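A student in our group prepared the protein record below, which I am reviewing. Here is the record exactly as it was handed to me.
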Amino acid sequence: RQATLFTVAGLGAALIGCAVASQLTDGDAPILIRTLGYAGIGGGVAIGLSGLVALLWSFTGYAGEQIDKRSNEEW
């Protein structure tokens, strides 16, 4: 559950960061707001990818257990 939450929240934060950063390309916005937009992109991608890796890691562990179980049943 935590990995799914990280994936969804991280990719959502990256999407919001992209939207904020795309509106601030003219250079008139304060540096703090631009920094927060770009930090949202970077942090969101990092959290989203960590959640995705955790999901894939748990899925491969489950799939490996099922393959072992099925292969032992056949013999």
